[in-house]
Design goal:
It is a single chain. By secondary structure, the protein is mainly alpha-helical. Helices cover about 60% and strands about 0% of the residues.
């Protein structure tokens, strides 16, 4: 009986440790890139923002393309960003891989909203907002979050 109790306590302990590790490793679910594409470009693969130089479905900027090309992925030229089969994977990588890496580095919670803020306004704005250096997010970013959550609910 004594051995049975030790084994049971060991099992309970391992289950609790496993649950704790799951909670500690919890992160945002993936951002729905179909919604991001709708907000960013309205689904137009030829969309171009002359102010930022953002191109295509996910409105990939030259800075993001440069990060992609340095990340060990297949490198692309800017003109390739007009192709959905190039643009979308880069947008998804940036939103659901690169931004979470940056959030972790700055010790900012990895949430859908923090990813969207970073995607729309930049990681610096997200960092400054969380550290209290800025009191409010830019109006464009607030509207971006509202649009995302409205579309997410089917509206």
């Amino acid at each position: 009986m004594n051995r049975y109790r030790r084994v049971m306590w060991a099992v309970v302990f391992l289950v609790l440790i496993g649950m704790l590790m799951c909670v500690m490793d919890a992160r945002a679910e993936e951002v729905n890139m179909d919604i991001v594409i709708q907000i960013e470009s309205g689904g137009n693969p030829n969309a171009y923002n002359k102010d930022s130089g953002a191109i295509g479905l996910c409105q990939i900027t030259p800075v993001v393309l440069k990060e992609w090309n340095k990340s060990g992925q297949i490198p692309f030229l800017e003109r390739g960003l007009y192709k959905p089969e190039v643009n979308r994977p880069i947008g998804d990588w940036y939103m659901n891989t690169r931004i979470p890496q940056m959030l972790k580095a700055y010790k900012i919670p990895d949430t859908i909203d923090n990813r969207l803020i970073s995607y729309n306004a930049g990681i610096k704005v997200c960092k400054d907002y969380h550290r209290g250096k800025i009191k409010r997010l830019p109006r464009e970013t607030v509207n971006y979050l509202k649009k995302y959550h409205k579309l997410e609910k089917g509206g």
